[in-house]
Amino acid sequence: MRLSRYFLPVLKETPSEAQIASHRLMLRAGMIKQASAGIYSWLPLGYKVLRNIERIVHEEQVRAGHIPMLMPTLQSADLWRESGRYEDYGAEMLRVTDRHERDMLYGPTNEELITDIFRSHVGSYKDLPLTLYHVQWKFRDEVRPRFGVMRGREFYMKDGYNFDLTEAAAKHAYNRHLVSYLRTYERMGLQAIPMKAEGGPIGGDYTHEFLVLADTGESEVYYDSEITDLRFGDRDIDYDDENACQAVLDEFTARYARTDDTHDETVFHDRVPEARRRRARGIEVGQIFYFGTKYSEPMGATVQGPDGKTVPVHMGSHGIGVSRLVGAIIEASHDDKGIVWPEGVTPFHVGLVNLKQGDAEADKACDGLYRDIVELGLEPLYDDRDERAGGKFATMDLVGLPWRITVGPRGLRNGVIELTCRRTGATEELSPEKALAKLAAVYSPHHPVKRVEPMAKRSFHTWL
Ligand code: ATP
Ligand code: MG
What we know:
single chain; alpha+beta; BirA Bifunctional Protein, domain 2; Rossmann fold; 2 domains; 9-stranded mixed β-sheet; 5-stranded mixed β-sheet; 23 strands; binds adenosine-5'-triphosphate; binds magnesium ion
């Protein structure tokens, strides 16, 4: 993309309404614009990041064998009356009436809708296990929407639902989700720690929240500092292998890590030596639940088991805060100049800065590099505006692309360009070929073909 043809409305001033870094930076970098309280338009740069996060979520869900679909945002109140949640949900639910006086609502979550789909089409244990999910906008009329997209009223969420014959099978689905979530967050450059949590209005007491540690987080958390040393890495877990998935859950939940809802000071002191006890703040970026037959029983979502008996299915639901993650990633990765995107989610892979726009040699070199970068399967953002170098650098630093190539007449005379790492600030003078080789290497773990290939081999459909 050439910046002169893009829409990147960066702000010079720091917006006064933003209290935390991610909100400030998203506004300044022209990623979002508030439409009304807790509701945002996603401007082109923000939209690209949102889609990248969504894509990783899809890829990892599909890798785990879960099946994507799409349910609507507006739902019929009748379904929620069946589960008993229409009255229970309270003021957070946005209720609307259509022209025929029918009660509708903007879905805050989808347990009822998916259970209705399930009961209409599935009747036998032979169709299980089944996990369906979608990524869709949700609405919760939060009392205090704040921190930009972190606590919106309208927000984008992945929610998945497993249907299983037995509790044991549903626990395996739970473990599968835990494993896939660990992979998902790490691909976004985040460490999200599973912590024992409480069910809330979804219900169920078997649940973990995933938290990204950050001073600006809204949750209070207590944990054993050893847990921050754990990494999922690039393990290749077979999601059908119950023991392998259970082992990952055991490993990642063995140490004390709880939100304040479930925190127990006595247990904390008994289990964790003082030097390792931590109390901190965290951002909830996901949650997994097993809730048994809470929805399947009242809504009649049953299957015929192998013994011919009809039984309600065991269910769980599993959410990832896709739009909140954009803010959470920035909270975890920024400096005083701006955002520092992890390679996995960056809106453009490399910034290209022409120090002397209009200089025939510099323009030609930039055009060539642009083509070569695209040839590598990467997307450059080329600042081709006729602006001073300082202004161009400031914009690149603000929008936070992990790598920047700087091209100027002086370097070109010596056959070199500059490659700068946003995170460390380190700059190398390299030949264009070497710079391109380095970019190719850095991005190879994030390359689409490599990501999709293993799924195709395992005979899963791909999302793309
Ligand atoms: P919270 O405790 O932060 O209100 P929740 O526990 O009610 O969230 P869940 O029902 O677990 O939310 O939804 C799954 C995920 O959706 C959460 O882990 C979070 O990342 C995201 N999410 C929930 N509410 C919001 C919101 N108002 N704005 C943005 N993301 C949200
Ligand atoms: Mg939650």
